[in-house]
Amino acid sequence: MTFYETNIFPTLNDLVTKGFGRFRKDLLTMAKGKVLEIGMGSGMSFDFYPHAVTSVDAIDPNPSMLERAKEKPNTKIKLQLGQAEQLNFEDDSFDTIICFLVYAR
Ligand SMILES: C[S@@+](CC[C@H](N)C(=O)[O-])C[C@H]1O[C@@H](n2cnc3c(N)ncnc32)[C@H](O)[C@@H]1O
Question: Which mutation among 60, 97, 101 tests ligand 1's pocket best, with the greatest number of atoms within 8 A of CB?
Answer without folding.
Answer: 60
